[in-house]
Amino acid sequence: MAAPSSEITNVGDALEGLVHQFADPWAFLRELIQNAIDAGSPQIDVRIDHDAGRGAMSIEVADAGEGMTREIIDTRLTRLFSSAKEGDYTKIGKFGIGFVSVFAIDPELICVDTGRAGEWWRVVFRRDRTFERIRLHDPVEGTTVRLYKAAKATEVEEARERARATLAYWCKHVKVELRLDDELVSGPMDIDGLCKVTHEEEGTALVMAIVHEAEALRGYYHGGLTLHEERDGSLPFIAYKIDSRFLEHTLTRDNVIRDENYAKAMTIVQQVARGPLMDRVFAALERIAGGEAVAPEVRERLYQCAEAPFNDQYAAPRWLAAPIVPTLGGPPVAMKTLRERARAKPVLCATAMSPLVAAMLADKYTVVGCSSHDAIDTLVYTATAAWSTPITNWCTALPLAPAEVESWAPLCAAMRALIKVRGYKVREVTIGRFDYPESAIAGRVAITQARFGECTPIAEVGQLASGWLASGRVLVLSASHPTLLHLRAVATREPELAAYLAIKSFFLHGELSSTTDAELASAAAEARWRRMDG
């Protein structure tokens, strides 16, 4: 007896909803691939052909699985459809829900050839959703689904690209050999990144790596089929793909169900990220700190990732003891060692060895090989609760050869005499070099130091004091400054004028009052007059 028309309408509407259940019409390929995998097929071939004469496109999905008997066809494949001979709708079967999506691209005809246990069948579905079952006499291996649709040559190429994109997203990690027009689509679950680690346990496989994007890839799969892929920053710079029995897709296939089973899968992710992955990161950093050459961006990214465990407070003791912090003039040190040293003296940072760095090392400072506030310096902060102090907060002056110093004698003598008249406490005026790596005084005319060649804080290089209680300082001129090079030549003829201009240039780095300038000018003029008169 035929079903009432209202029931037919309701079921028919439900059927149309299932036809368009997925946002992408070409997602029907994913459903056919999943059916083939469930049938145990070791390989699946997808082929798209064009019959120019008929103006028709055919899409074929062929597998070598166990196939279907008539009972399976009747109870699982066709339960959503109206039989052309029986004329009724029946209950929804699990197998048929995904298969219904083949109608999403509006084919004129769908043909399913299948066989099992010595019986072989062809099921033909028409555009109006009716079907006909035909017994075949020739053997059929597995199941082959063909869709036929009117199409121009350009439409066929567009269809091929859509099919390629669909399979590349949903089926790229299926554990069978999947081909599209003889081109291999499937491949192992993998990630292109640093310190890659794989993990397997019952029902779960995971691959994880360090990448350059803070919002990294999270890929969720079940049986090799994509459930969902997204990007977020919950584990910065850590990308992963996980295939797990704990993961299931939503009904619309547009996300992964985030329930207690999902939480179990994420626990595995956290354990690998906090364990094996970090072990590899720290092992790589030990090699880098020991001199292994890597690209700057790789170095920066790995040091950034090394900071994360300590911020989350689950750092393993072995990481604290790993010598990953590069130093200048010595071997790499562990964060634990750095913490201990920082209690005695502040940790410094510099990017290159220099006479100043050597002097600070001789004074028992630790100099980390990094720039201020970069990823390595962040580790310093994590270990010591203080940022490292840049080496540019200090300076020094380098000695010249005696013969070169002699050529500066007239200018130095005239400057000392003029400064003494002004009442400043200067024990000596001499010449030095300021041109060493990371020099903070390379452009200065002169600096003052308590002793020539010491490590002087930058805040003190402009100091000149007067009075009975003031300590005398050494005024060091820059041997390479163009102004002084010119004044050196002037000093052979007019030492007082050269000395006045040189002292004025020094004071320009600080405050030169009109009173001081006038006093220096008067003292220079008087000294010149006495020299000329004598």
UniProtKB/TrEMBL annotation:
It comes from Nannocystis radixulma. Keywords: ATP-binding, Nucleotide-binding. The keyword ATP-binding applies. NCBIfam families: P_loop_sacsin. One of its GO terms (molecular function) is ATP binding. The keyword Iron-sulfur does not apply. InterPro entries: HATPase_C_sf. This is ATP-binding protein.
